[in-house]
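Handoff note, outgoing to incoming analyst
You'll be picking up this chain. Sequence as last confirmed:
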Amino acid sequence: MVGLLNSLILAETGQGGIGIGMVLFWVLIFGVFYFILIRPQQKQQKEHKKLITELKAGDHIVTIGGFKGVITQVKEDGFKVRFAPEVELEIIKSAVGRRASDEGQQKK
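Most recent structure output, in case you need it:
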């Protein structure tokens, strides 16, 4: 910290070191990356975690692989999902991509 302050003071006096402009440039770059990349990703992760905790038996889901199914049982580390009348598989919670719309599922 002391070295950075000394560098700033030396830069202002013209004796070398990094300038305040360079420090502000890097702060600005970090701020842009935070608001464009990091913050939206954290928000999306929080929403996905909330979705996983709210799912219950009978909910229609789409897995990250694109398979549509109905949750038949909620377990500690995953779900049992019915993909077809006689096809029921156990998936881990992180494999759930999103909640499916119920319109297409109920017409069948």
